[in-house]
Amino acid sequence: MSSPRPAQIARLALFGLLVLAVVVAFAYRDRIDVAALQLWLEGQGAAAPFAFVAFYVLATVLFLPGSVLTLAGGALFGPVAGTAYSLIGATIGATAAFLIARHVAGDWVARKAGGRLKTLIDGVEAEGWRFVAFVRLVPLFPFNLLNYALGLTRIPLAHYVVASLVCMFPGALAYTYLGYAGRAAAEGSENMIRIILLALALLAVALFLPKLIKRWRQGAATGVAGLKSSELKARLDRGEDIAVLDVRPAKDYAGELGHIPGSINIPLDELPKRLPEIEDRRERPLAVICRTNRQSGKAVGMLRDLGFKQALLVEDGMVGWTGKAGAPAQSGACGAAAPAQPSAGTGKTVTLIIQNAPYRGDNKAWHALRFAGAALAGDMKVRVHLLDDGAQLARKGHVVPEGAADLEKLLTQLMEFGLEVRACGMALNDCKLDERDLIPGVQSGSMTALAGWVKESDLVLTF
């Protein structure tokens, strides 16, 4: 067994010191308030701005609340200087935490990350400064923890620093002015009412901005630009610079509907980690297609969030391209017709609970999917919850007995037409399945989630 190298020892020592410092800081965090900070800073004289920035940096690294410091900065230095000092301290502190995480554990995480964690990191790195800007404007995660987490990615340092500095400004300005307004109120300033109203207005803007940004991003994902397959064909025939991304599984790409010549096949579940294959299309038209438009719609939303602003949804999919809807596999003389198009979901809501494993003699799983297809064709909203042995239906790579219907293929087709599928998490564990084993589009569920579906349903059937 090889002994630890000096660099490893240094990293471990730094990590240990950081943990110790955080524990000590946490033990004394209740003593930090605006009044105490003001008293301490006023005693620093001309060095107060430098002391404030240094303390802000240390607080950011040690997980102390930055909002208290920002309020104190406004009360002591005023709205302009207070904002500047707070923003400088927060940016330097965030950068220090970022570099500590990268130095201590960045390489280790890069080597060890796999599965969903690797996919998540790849997605964040592909987004780069845009992701940093978004999480600074929309505080989904604790500020201090986020600084360390982003250090474990390969986002360039300059992008991280600039995006943090710019996008933390609205919040810093609002909280600084609030601290300034508080001091004005305490001193009975003649302009007290105007100052307080302006502070509240800035705070309202800072609080509303995250919702505005989230709404804008969601709109970009849902208000997807698209084109019909006939228009895509015309553009390809004219030799226009437009590429085609097919997000169906490989077996469907080579299956009955075929594929568009020259298209790139990247299944939806592999898209985050295979983004480099389409990086050259980030600023150029990219038509995204699947069987209909369900999987491709998700892919376009994902790509637009990652900066592929010319990602286009092929609205009628390969069904429109080939001019045939295809049909699910048949079982004996009683088959199930696929809907001609995705369900509008305007009819009744139906929840199907499948408890039996596929390919049993009773064919209950097959009959449940047949019913799902018929209900979707009637524009019903259909949901399937896989329970007990029924969770086996979610496994990709079915071994189909001779003469039986390919239920994996049928389930995939029905999801394209609007079927929602969840598999009970406990049942997945019993079947020794995890999310990597599941057919793309199947989600892990729970009894709480099933209860919600049942409550919303007009009809519940068990197979």
Automatic annotation (TrEMBL):
<protein>
    <recommendedName>
        <fullName>TVP38/TMEM64 family membrane protein</fullName>
    </recommendedName>
</protein>
<dbReference type="GO" id="GO:0005886">
    <property type="term" value="C:plasma membrane"/>
</dbReference>
<dbReference type="InterPro" id="IPR032816">
    <property type="entry name" value="VTT_dom"/>
</dbReference>
<dbReference type="Pfam" id="PF02635">
    <property type="entry name" value="DsrE"/>
</dbReference>
<keyword id="KW-0808">Transferase</keyword>
<feature type="transmembrane region" description="Helical">
    <location>
        <begin position="84"/>
        <end position="105"/>
    </location>
</feature>
<feature type="domain" description="Rhodanese">
    <location>
        <begin position="238"/>
        <end position="330"/>
    </location>
</feature>
<keyword id="KW-1003">Cell membrane</keyword>
<dbReference type="Pfam" id="PF09335">
    <property type="entry name" value="VTT_dom"/>
</dbReference>
<comment type="similarity">
    <text>Belongs to the TVP38/TMEM64 family.</text>
</comment>
<dbReference type="InterPro" id="IPR036873">
    <property type="entry name" value="Rhodanese-like_dom_sf"/>
</dbReference>
<keyword id="KW-0472">Membrane</keyword>
<keyword id="KW-1133">Transmembrane helix</keyword>
<dbReference type="InterPro" id="IPR003787">
    <property type="entry name" value="Sulphur_relay_DsrE/F-like"/>
</dbReference>
<dbReference type="InterPro" id="IPR027396">
    <property type="entry name" value="DsrEFH-like"/>
</dbReference>
<keyword id="KW-0812">Transmembrane</keyword>
<dbReference type="InterPro" id="IPR015414">
    <property type="entry name" value="TMEM64"/>
</dbReference>
<dbReference type="GO" id="GO:0016740">
    <property type="term" value="F:transferase activity"/>
</dbReference>
<dbReference type="InterPro" id="IPR001763">
    <property type="entry name" value="Rhodanese-like_dom"/>
</dbReference>
<feature type="transmembrane region" description="Helical">
    <location>
        <begin position="128"/>
        <end position="150"/>
    </location>
</feature>
<dbReference type="Pfam" id="PF00581">
    <property type="entry name" value="Rhodanese"/>
</dbReference>
<feature type="transmembrane region" description="Helical">
    <location>
        <begin position="51"/>
        <end position="77"/>
    </location>
</feature>
<feature type="transmembrane region" description="Helical">
    <location>
        <begin position="157"/>
        <end position="180"/>
    </location>
</feature>
<feature type="transmembrane region" description="Helical">
    <location>
        <begin position="192"/>
        <end position="209"/>
    </location>
</feature>
